[in-house]
Amino acid sequence: MSDITKQTLSELVNNIKEKKLSSSEITQAFVDRSEKSKELNTYITEDFSNALDKAKKFDDNPKLDLKLPGIPMAVKDLFCTANVRTTAGSKILNNFVPTYESTVTQNIWNEGAILIGKLNCDEFAMGSSNETSFFGNVQNPIDKNLVPGGSSGGSSSAVAAQLTPITIGTDTGGSIRQPASFTGTVGLKPTYGSCSRYGIVAFASSLDQAGPMAQNVQDCALLQEVISSYDQKDSTSIDFKRNLYSKELTKDIKGKKIGIPKEYRVDGMPKEIDDLWQKGIEYAKDCGAEIIDISLPHTNYALPTYYIVAPAEASSNLARYDGVKYGFRADGENLIDMYEKTRSEGFGAEVQRRIMIGTYVLSSGYYDAYYLKAQKVRKLIKNDFDEAYKKVDAILTPSTPSSAFKIGEKTNDPVSMYLNDIFTVPVNLAGLPGISIPAGHDSKGYPLGLQIIGKAFDEQNILNIAYAMEEKINFKNKITDWWIK
Amino acid sequence: MSIDLKTIKHISKLSRISVDEKKAEKLASDLNSIFDFIEKLNELKTENVEPLTSVAETTLKLRPDEVKSKNLREQIIKNSPKDNEDYFVVPKVIE
Questions:
Q1: Interface touch A377/B46, C-beta < 8 Å
Q2: Arithmetic mean of pLDDT, A344-367
Q3: Exactly one of A175, A246, A403, A436 is catalytic; which is it?
Q4: CATH number of the A4-263+274-296+386-473 domain
Q5: How does residue A8 score in pLDDT terms, banded at 50, 70 and 90?
Q6: Which residue of the set A24, A151, A181, A403 is catalytic?
Q7: How many other C-beta atoms are found inside a 10 Å radius of the C-beta of residue A311?
Q8: Which of A23, A34, A37, A76 is catalytic?
Q9: B5-43: which CATH topology?
Q10: In chain A, what are the domain boundaries?
């Protein structure tokens, strides 16, 4: 059998079903490669020996009709996993071992997959480069000095480096799509309400969504099919008819109307990104799609809106970390002193900054000027998409305004870091699905991604467009295994 | 608009995060550059716009008020930072 870790998820599933490979062989292969790849710092917690035990149990009693039979999988460390440490990349949860399982991961294990470890991420998913993690930055397998994107940076790095066949991330403002774009992988942010938020460490509850990160569109569709479910434990989970995304996947997108929003041609965007976008338009035409110019007039207001809404919700969500019930505690002279020291020592700089922004915009006298204003602009941004979708079936944009940047390059300038999410944030604000697919390389040889944005609950359509374009693009990731000695 | 050190101290109290002088100065500078960026929203007139509170346009579902999980005391206490059997332990609050 050729190198197991080089196989796609779909190939591995077929090989297990046809009994050409066992779960133990596959799990051992990914564990071995992960062991040799410690330099990338993708894992926060490894669960290798348990994984091998579970693989053996699976092989003793294989259930081959499941969708992910005996497939090993590492997941972002933002998903609570029963009896396996879950840190959210933070010191404050360094010793937290959940007693319950997130719905999304439970759906994955129910289909036969096996947890091999928890992947690094920005602290509480607040970051675009994985550099805010308490457990250190992650290296991009494309190049030693590059960030893997964020916040799902451990996830993107692990999939690109083939340490896990597939994974899940979470996306609040671009945290799946931007790292996918930076590592030459595929990442889908589903419609808000498609995947349950139960058991995911909360960042900004009106924006957070879990989604698949994969090496190709087919694998991505299969995992989306597994993780998306209506869940009574999440009050914003939506009960809609879900497709069998991988089975219904088709490259026939003839006559689909794809919108090109002129406002995404932002000032100072590198020519390479513009060229990639033009190439994407040509690929879409080659697939039989019809290209239509559209306008999303409030695009420029999306980031400022996001940097009110997300910190406001975060400041409220993170109030629970007080050193009393779980997590890190610093000793104090009295109760208030203990709270203040715990939070000051337990949270990193970026998380503190966002809690402060959020507290300020929600504080007495400022609520109307900031939070209410942002909610109104959010409505205008959503209205833009509603208008556009009267004319088109999907929207095509670049995923990010640049390729992956160097570790340390943007850490001292929060605003320049935030600008990374300029093309992804509007999608979260409007609650829509968006997928990033690798579409080319820049002059430095770093991958670049294109984003396809869909109507709410229209994941099948954007997966189909991505699937058709993927074939035309025929992207090959340039990874040399430089970290394996 | 400018966020001064006094405001930073006030927000830090509200958010229960202690800050020393050096950290307060850094935060003031960071927050000012972030708020300069946020001010862009004031270009838009929004008097007649309804605020968007949730993109999930569904009314909350009701369910029967039944106990579904019980006897979780051990699980709930399990991750608490101070050793104890039945309670969360905090510094003394009543003299």
A1: yes
A2: 96
A3: A175
A4: 3.90.1300.10
A5: very high
A6: A151
A7: 28
A8: A76
A9: Histone, subunit A (1.10.20)
A10: 4-263+274-296+386-473
Q: In angstroms, how far is the first alpha carbon of chain B from the final one?
A: 44
**Mind telling me how many Å the CA of B36 is from chain A's nearest CA?**
10
Predicted structure pTM score: 0.97
Is A193 at the interface with chain B, CB within 8 A?
yes
A422 at B interface, C-beta within 8 A:
no
What confidence tens digit (pLDDT) does each residue in A202-245 have? 999 999 999 999 999 999 999 999 999 999 999 999 999 999 99
B44 to A415: CB separation less than 8 angstroms, yes or no: no
Residue A289: pLDDT band (50, 70, 90) is very high
Q: What percent of chain B has pLDDT over 90?
A: 59
Residue ranges per structural domain of chain B: 5-43
Got the DSSP string for A399-410? S-SSSPPBTTSS
Give the ranges where B15-94 is alpha helix by DSSP (H): 21-38, 73-78
Instruction: Evaluate if residue A1 carries a pLDDT over 60.
Output: no
Query: In chain B, which residues have their Cβ closer than 8 Å to the Cβ of A305?
Result: 41
- Residue A311: predicted pLDDT: 98
A326 touches chain B (CB under 8 A): yes
Residue-level pLDDT at A156: 98
Q: Which residues of B touch A332 (CB under 8 A)?
A: 91
Enter the ipTM. Answer: 0.94
Q: How many angstroms separate the CA atoms of A294 and B7, rounded?
A: 43
Dihedral of CA B26/B27/B29/B33: which sign? positive
B81-91: pLDDT as tens digits? 887 778 899 99
Nearest CA in chain B to A342: B17
In chain A, residues with a C-beta closer than 8 Å to the C-beta of B40 are: 300-301, 304
pLDDT band at B1; cut points 50, 70, 90 = low
Q: Mark whether A6 is an active-site residue.
A: no
CB burial readout A244-282, b (16+ within 10 A) else e? ebbeebebebeebebbbbebbeeeebeebbeebbebbbe
Task: Supply the pLDDT for residue A53.
Answer: 98
- Residue A267 — very low, low, confident or very high, per pLDDT cuts 50/70/90? confident
Nearest to A156 by CA among A261, A76, A39: A76
**In terms of CA atoms, which chain B residue is nearest residue A354?**
B31
**Beta strands A290-294 and A257-261, pairing class:** parallel
A416 touching chain B per CB within 8 A: no
What is the rounded CA–CA span in Å between residue A165 and residue B86? Answer: 43
Selecting from A192, A329, A355 the residue whose C-beta is nearest the C-beta of B81 gives: A329
Contact across the interface for A347 and B92, Cβ inside 8 Å: no
Confirm whether A38 is a catalytic residue.
no
Structure tokens at A326: 């779980």
Phi, psi of A225 (to 5 degrees): -60, -35
Answer yes or no: A76 catalytic. yes
